[in-house]
Amino acid sequence: MDYEQKSIELHKKMKGKIELKSKFPLNTKDDLSVAYTPGVAAVSNLVAKNPKAAYTHTIKSHTICVLSDGSAVLGLGNIGPLGALPVMEGKAVIFKEFGGLDAFPICVDTQDKNEIIDFARKIAPVFGGINLEDIAAPKCFEIEEALQDLPIPVMHDDQHGAAVVTLAALINSAKLSKLKLSDLTVVVNGAGAAGLAITKLLLDENSEIGTPVKEIIVCDSKGIINQKRQDLNPYKKEIAKLTNFRDLSGGLHDALKGAKVFIGFSVAGVLMPEWIKDMASDPWVFAMANPLPEIMPQKAKEAGAYIVGTGRSDFPNQINNALAFPGIFRGALDSRATKITKKMKIAAAMALANFVGEPSPERVLPSPLEQGVHEAVASSVMRAAMSTD
C-alpha cells in the first residue's frame, strides 16, 4: 500500500482526523437551559468556589493539550505550526483511541520559548495535562522544565515517551539475550530530545531494572560527544561528563566498534550495514528515525543484527512513543498526579516489557493495537504515582 497517497486522500475526504461531539441533548428549551443559560451558571459558581469540582463537572479530568510549535516535526524538521497540525491531530486520535482521553491539537504561531511557556500557563486551566510535542531541542528542555510548577502534569513526549518505550525494548532484548542491562555498551545516535532522554534514563540507578548500563556513547551530527569538544550546548556538556568514559572521539563508526546496542534518534540512512559487522556479536539495532530509519530492517538483519526495531508501524518491533503516552497520561490523570515522575516512567516501561510475556527477536514489544496494553501502562503508572515508598 502507498501509505503516503492513502493518507493524503483520507485526510482530504475527512477534513482532518478529529471532531467535537456534544454529550448533552439540545432538543428542547429545557435542554438548552440545562446545558447553557441559566442552568450553567450554577456549575460555574460551583467550580469558581471549589476548583477541584473542575475535575468532576468539566472536561478537565480527561482532556489533554497537545502543544507544538512545529519546530521539530517527525523527521521533517522545522515545518511550522500548520505543517505540525496533521501530526498533532494524529496524537489526539491516539490519545482517544488508546487512552480514552480527549486531546486537542494546539499549534502555536511562535517559536519563542518564553512565549510558548507563557501561552501554556494561560491555557492550563482548561486541561488535565499538557503534552509537549515536536518542539526542537534544546528549547524543548527549557520549556518543559519551566512548566513543572503547574498543578497539572506536563511532559515532552518526544523525550520521555520515546525513552520509556526504548527502555522497555532494551529490557526484553536483554531477557532474550540472557544479559543484564549493566552488561551493555550502548551507542545513542542523535543528541536531541529523545536521545538525551534515553541516555539519562539508562544512566540512573534503579534496582528493579538493573540500570545503569555499562557504557553509553552519544553521537550527534558532528560525531562522538566528549568533554574536549568546544561546540556543545549546556545539555550536551552535561551528557559529556556522564558518558564516553573511554574518551573516544571520531564518528558513528568509531563509536559502534564493539558496542552491543545501536539506538538511533537521528536521520535516515546514517548507519551503514558494514558498520554493524564491527559491533559485538548478535547486536541490537533500534533505528527510530521517522519516516525513514537510520537503516532499513532487512539490511540490518543481513548485516548480522539479532534484534531490529524501528519507529514505524509496518515493521516488527515498533519502538514508538504511541505505546507510552496514552497510558502514561491516563495513569497520571486518574491518580490526579501533578507531575510525571521518573518512577512513573520506569513503571510504564516495566508494564510494556511485562506485557509481552515471552519475547522473541521479532517481538520485544507489544503492538500499540493490542488489547489491554495501554490499560496495563495506565494502571502501572497510577500505582507508581500513588505509591508513597
Alpha-carbon distance between the two ends = 50 Å
- Ranges with pLDDT <50 over ≥5 residues? none
CATH topology of the largest domain: Rossmann fold
Structural class: alpha/beta
Secondary-structure element series = HHHHEHEHEHEHEHEEHHEHEHEHHH
Judging by the overall fold, what is the CATH architecture of the largest domain? 3-Layer(aba) Sandwich
Give structural attributes.
single chain, 389 residues, alpha/beta, Rossmann fold, 2 domains, 6-stranded mixed beta sheet, 4-stranded parallel beta sheet, 16 helices, 10 strands
Structure description:
The protein has 389 residues and is of the alpha/beta class. It contains 16 helices and 10 strands. Helix 13 links the parallel strand 9 and strand 10. The chain folds into 2 domains: 154 residues, Rossmann fold; 233 residues, NAD(P)-binding Rossmann-like Domain (Rossmann fold, 3-Layer(aba) Sandwich). Strands 7-6-5-8-9-10 form a 6-stranded mixed sheet. Strands 2-1-3-4 form a 4-stranded parallel sheet. The model has no long low-confidence stretch (mean pLDDT 95).
